[in-house]
């Protein structure tokens, strides 16, 4: 019978099934960070159990890590979480990419980067943005702390089978429009819960044309559309990305792996439970105006009038969001001045993101009205950026160049907004207080964030080329 990609991976991993009950599936890779693992390790300790497969379990610290002076953690809770992870990894024999390791970084950046993420694997982590790894055609999703303990103890997980949703992207992205705009556009169109209960598979020409890093940006935000996970079928772009990475089979074993991975596509004639379509051709750069990732619009648009929404609930939500965000309906998005610019996170903290931001920033100066920071997603991203001289471009322009971590994506470390500050952020969530109490977050692409840093307010990056040409 013809199967979707999801069904193939699922069927390969179900190890026990009773009628009417959730399945038991096998987990190929368990990623661990300092926030959601302490109680799980403690649970093992209390019941005298071990990590069953330490060889399939990898840990790093990211959320609490300061991006300046990282060994001097002054916040007691952060320090405790980080020290506890180190001790737990020692006690349970789990490989840890520690603060002094080049591979330390945001778990969803460093995992794929060192080649832990492979097509067809089941991957879990106590973190919702585990969906990022679906870019490789892996079934990857976030789990809660009690499930973290369960996976540590058994390498299995109880799961109900999700429904399948094809998000078909028609046409190609236009210059200046990025993978970030694409996923923001999809969520703005369909809402933050359209994919609840589904695993998304992204298909279509525009997806095929994306690099692995761009695919990760798209899959990263699947969870913001409510999905259990997001998948992209592996292809030559995937295999080329993986070739030679540390945790990828080498030589003949790699070719054999590629032969297996090539089968991980949705068969002709396979049926998804639901299909939605999205037009890439007409998409333009996106900016969110509200307090959920679905409250987004074109950079050329105006802050919406809450009355323009169809349902009472939407009108109320928009009103509340606009008030929190300190906005006035009808204001052009390009007139919104920002106080802070954050370039980083597991959505947009990879080398291509930094290149895109640097390409905008090169030769310009950050507006004196704001603070702008660039935070590489991992130690290796930082190293690579420095090899390419991107750090120079950023610092000469007036951006601060930081060490790897989650940073200002969420307020769990010293990088926080002050109350009322407005931030152009390349991260994935704009909830109330996400970047600091009463902070105001607008989600954008790295190029859009860099351009806002220079102009002091949002600008349409498609005009940027124009500006560069005029100055040249
Ligand atoms: C702290 C962690 C549990 C959380 C998540 O699950 O996503 C964080 O990474 C986030 O982005 O909000
Ligand atoms: S970078 Fe942000 S979204 Fe990603 S894991 Fe860290 S806190 Fe979560």
TrEMBL record:
Q: Which domain of life is it from?
A: Bacteria
* Gene3D superfamilies in the cross-refs: Aconitase, domain 3 (3.30.499.10)
Q: GO molecular function of the protein, one example?
A: 3-isopropylmalate dehydratase activity
Species classification: Bacteria, Bacillati, Bacillota, Bacilli, Bacillales
Keyword terms: 4Fe-4S, Amino-acid biosynthesis, Branched-chain amino acid biosynthesis, Iron, Iron-sulfur, Leucine biosynthesis, Lyase, Metal-binding
The protein's name:
3-isopropylmalate dehydratase large subunit
- Organism field: Paenibacillus baimaensis
Instruction: State its Enzyme Commission number(s).
Output: 4.2.1.33
* Needed cofactors: [4Fe-4S] cluster
Binding-site residues for [4Fe-4S] cluster, renumbered to this chain: 346, 406, 409
